[in-house]
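INFO  loader      accepted 1 record
INFO  loader      residues=343
INFO  predictor   begin
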Amino acid sequence: MACHSTERMIADAASDARAGIVVWSPVKSIWTGSVTVIALVGGPLSFTADAFLLFLVTSAITLCGGHSVGMHRLLIHRGFEAPKWLEHILVYLGTLIGMAGPRGMIYGHDIRDWAQRQETCHDLFGHRRPFLHDAWWQMHCEVRLDHPPRFVLEPAVAQDRFYRIVERTWLWQQLPWAVGFFLVGGLPWLIWGVPVRVAVSLTGHWLVGHFAHRGGHQGWRVEHVAVQGYNIRHIGLITFGECWHANHHAFPGSAKLGLEPGQIDPGWWLIKLFQYAGLARNPRLPEHLPARANVVRATSRPQQQAGIELEGAAAGDGELRGLRVGRVEHEVARLGHDHRGHR
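INFO  predictor   done
INFO  writer      dumping tokens
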């Protein structure tokens, strides 16, 4: 079965998204296991109100500004434009969640995205195994495909000296912060500022990925792919908008993930704040993206597939009100109204 290529993952005739084995990843497993054990044991024993506040603030900065906005929406998807110095700061903050460096994050995201867009893919990419089995696979292992696609990283990132340094040292980037926290707030600040924060970030990232690929609400559906994305309601605030995964699967290049009324998206709020300050330009929304014929509205009423508009949750948001995705659905209608989504 022929595989499709994506922007950075170039498939050939032998590429296969399903055939491969899951192997234990020593560095990943020891790192994840260590911070988790320290967090579970040391967190309760060292709890103080100021240490907990430090955890909340640093988690919000690294997860929202770093991971969601810097790593995901800017570096990986180029959902908006920003000065290089700001991009470097945001991506560095994203590295502090303790998952990987810039190149590692792009590769891990793109190989999963490539596999999910095929007609079939390995169970690890689809989060198909039971809860604890998937936890072990995702946070302690990696899949080695027999015939992976060729990874081509754009020169602007591959040749960036700052990204090369951070990629080589991403695990050690926690150390200066650990020392600083210890000097200011002692052991409680050290434990809650680094291992507790990292353990919660890694576990939370997996939990969102697990549930966002197994079932739930869909405003949009991508047909003829191995894995669907689903929206996880009520947790938009604590996931900084990353829970709206059906939207993201449908419009991966959109800088805004919470596309419909009531879908809270703090990552988008931060991008808008940057834009108002003159630090972000040209944020992309679904109406700015190329039409995809296999993206359909998740509804049992096919006549609604043409000319749908998404109204912004806030009446004053002029960019969101009247957001047209008719180009996508017009293409679907042209190909035939037999395409149907479902909830």
